[in-house]
Design a protein that fits this description.
This protein has 154 residues and is α+β, with helices and mostly antiparallel strands. The chain is 36% helix and 12% strand. The chain has helices at residues 20-27, 82-89, 99-112, 118-125, 135-152, and strands at 2-5, 8-11, 46-49, 52-55, 68-69. Strands 4-3-5 form a three-stranded antiparallel β-sheet, with helices on one face. Strands 1-2 form a two-stranded antiparallel sheet. A hairpin with a 2-residue loop joins strand 1 (2-5) and strand 2. Helix 2 (82-89) packs across helix 5 (135-152) and helix 3 crosses helix 5. The longest helix has 18 residues, at 135-152. The protein is globular and about 45 Å long.
């Protein structure tokens, strides 16, 4: 089986029914996406497939049709992505377990809606649970990243 993950082609031998999460973590060694619930309810395993957030714990690797981006693939040669930097600036993480999935969903939101309203943020982030309750900081980080994107044109 062959996938493009974070811009790199990866070949591995996997059962097509294996969840993408386990193919990424166990076969490709990409550990950013986390196992949270196994039923696509918490969002800790969120990755992007062709820019769309998907729950990798419930998506069979054999059904993946497109480029996969994980948290490891967001940073560029010049450093962290705008969303990653905003997460740090707003001190979002506490335990950090859900943060990769949160950041992936936030990144996808800003690609689709560059200046999201609170309602846009709530809708886009609804599938990502944060056990620490950092939702106000998550919203602030998304707004900070949106403002920086508008300021720099990035």
């Amino acid at each position: 089986m062959r996938l493009t993950v974070n811009g790199n082609p990866i070949e591995f031998d996997a059962d097509p029914d294996m969840p993408l999460l386990w193919a990424l973590r166990d076969l490709a060694g990409i550990t950013g996406p986390k196992f949270g619930c196994g039923i696509a309810a918490c969002g800790a395993c969120t990755v992007l497939v062709d820019g769309t957030p998907v729950r990798s714990c419930a998506l069979p690797v054999g059904l993946v049709d497109g480029d996969v981006v994980t948290i490891e693939g967001l940073a560029g040669a010049d450093g962290l992505s705008l969303v990653q930097q905003a997460w740090l600036d707003e001190q979002v993480p506490q335990c950090g377990y859900c943060q990769a999935g949160q950041i992936m969903s936030a990144h996808a939101l800003l690609q689709e809606i560059p200046e999201p309203t609170d309602e846009d943020i709530d809708n886009a982030m609804a599938g990502n649970l944060c056990r620490c309750g950092t939702y106000p900081r998550i919203r602030a980080a998304i707004k900070r990243a949106a403002a920086e994107k508008a300021r720099t044109g990035a």
